[in-house]
Amino acid sequence: MSMDRERVAYVNGEIAPESEAKVSIGDAGFLYGDAVFDTTRSFGHRIFRLEQHIDRLYDSLKYMRIDPGMSERELAGLTVEVFEANRGLLGDDDDYWITQRFTRGVRGDEGGRPTVIVECYPLPFEERARFYRDGLAVATPSIRRTPPQSMSPRAKMHNYVNMIQAELEVKGQNPDAWAIMLDVNGNLCEGQGSNIFLVKDGALFTPKEQYVLAGISRAVVIELAQEVGIEVHETDVDLYDAYTADEAFVTSTSFCICQISTVNGAVVGDGAVPGPLTDRLQKAYSGLVGIDIVGQYLSRLG
Ligand code: PMP
Questions:
Q1: Does pLDDT of 109 surpass 90?
Q2: Ligand 1 center to residue 109 CA distance, Å?
Q3: Confidence of residue 1 (pLDDT cuts 50, 70, 90)
Q4: What is the Å distance from ligand 1's center to 39 Cα?
Q5: Is the pTM of this model over 0.85?
Q6: What is the 191 CA–ligand 1 centroid distance (Å)?
Q7: Which of 26, 148, 168, 281 has the most crowded Cβ, counting Cβ within 10 A?
Q8: 119 - beta bridge partners?
C-alpha cells in the first residue's frame, strides 16, 4: 500500500483522482444547496446496508423532484466500484464514509442532467475516540430544527445551514458540546448528523420520524432492541424526559451508538459510560456488523 496514492471519486461518468474531480461554479448544489445525498460506511472494509441507504437517497431525490438518470442498481454498482478503488488506502483498522450526491445540475444546462458524485472519506476515529470513554456533552441551542411545514427533515438534502447554525451556537458556548436541536414544539429532535434515544425504566424513547431524518442506525437500534424484547416508543420527548432519563445516546452512521453523558450540563442517569442498556445495544450492534464498534474508537486513545 503506497501512502502517496490519492483517493479517487466518481463525477459524472468518470472516476478520477480527488484533486482532479471538479464540479462547475454554476452547479445548483453549490449555488442553492439544491441537491441530495446519502452516506453509509464500511465496517472492517465491508459496506453496510448499501441498499437501504440508496433507497433513502431515491426517496430524497423523489421529494426534491430530481431525476437521477440511473437505476438504484447502477448506483450501487458504481458505489462498490469507487469503494474498491479506494480500499487499498485504508489501514487495517480504518474504514470509510461512502457518499453519493445528486445535484439538480448546472445553471443554463437545458438538458437538466443532474451532477452525480460518489466519494469516500476516512472516518474520524481518533478525533472522536474520547466520546466513547467520556460520553457526549449535548446542549440544546435556541434555534429550532426546520419543521416539516417548511422543509421535510425526512429527506437528506445538501442544505445543512439550520443545523450548522445550531452547532455554531452550542460550540460558541462550549467547544466540546454537540447540538441536539428541539423541534418547533419544544420536543427533542436531532443533531447535525445524529438521532437521539432516551432510556427510561428499561424502554427506549425516540422522536417520531415526521420531525427527523429516519437514520439507518436509528432503524438498526430499533430492530436490535425489538429482537431482545426491549420496548421502543417513537414519540414526543422533551427536556424533562432527558433530564430524568436513566441513559441517553445518539445514533449515526459514524457513531453507531454513542452515550450522552450530559444534557445542558445535567448528568444523565448516574453518568456511567456506557450505561447498561447502551452497552447491551452497542454489543448487539457490534455483533451485527462484525466488528467491535466501540473498540474501533477506543483503540485510538493514547
Ligand atoms: N439526522 C440527520 C440530520 C443526519 O444528517 C443524519 C446522518 N445521516 C442522521 C440523523 C443519522 O442518520 P444515519 O443513522 O442514517 O447516519
A1: no
A2: 32
A3: very low
A4: 9
A5: yes
A6: 8
A7: 281
A8: 99
Closest atom of ligand 1 to 220 CA is 14
Which residues, including other chains, have CB under 8 Å from residue 267's CB and lie 6 or more apart? 261
At 39-64, the pLDDT tens digits run 999 999 999 999 999 999 999 999 99
Cα separation, 234 vs 205, in Å, equals 6
State the DSSP string of the chain: --TT---EEEETTEEEEGGG----TTBHHHHH--EEEEEEEEETTEE-SHHHHHHHHHHHHHHTT---SS-HHHHHHHHHHHHHHHHTTS-TT--EEEEEEEE--BTT-TT-PPEEEEEEEE--HHHHHHHHHH-EEEE--SSPPPPTTTS-TTS-BS--HHHHHHHHHHHHH-TT-EE--B-TTS-B-B-SS-EEEEEETTEEEE--GGGS---HHHHHHHHHHHHTT--EEE----HHHHHT-SEEEEEETTTEEEEEEEETTEEPTT--SS-HHHHHHHHHHHHHHTS-HHHHHHTT--
Q: Hey, what's the cell of 107?
A: 445553471
Domains of the chain from N-terminus onward: 8-123 (3.30.470.10), 128-298 (3.20.10.10)
Ligand 1 centroid from CA 156, angstroms: 8
DSSP labels, 2-26? -TT---EEEETTEEEEGGG----TT
Q: Spell out which residues line ligand 1, taking CB within 6 angstroms.
A: 39, 190, 193-195, 212-213, 215-218, 251-253
Minimal-distance CA residue to ligand 1 atom 7: 193
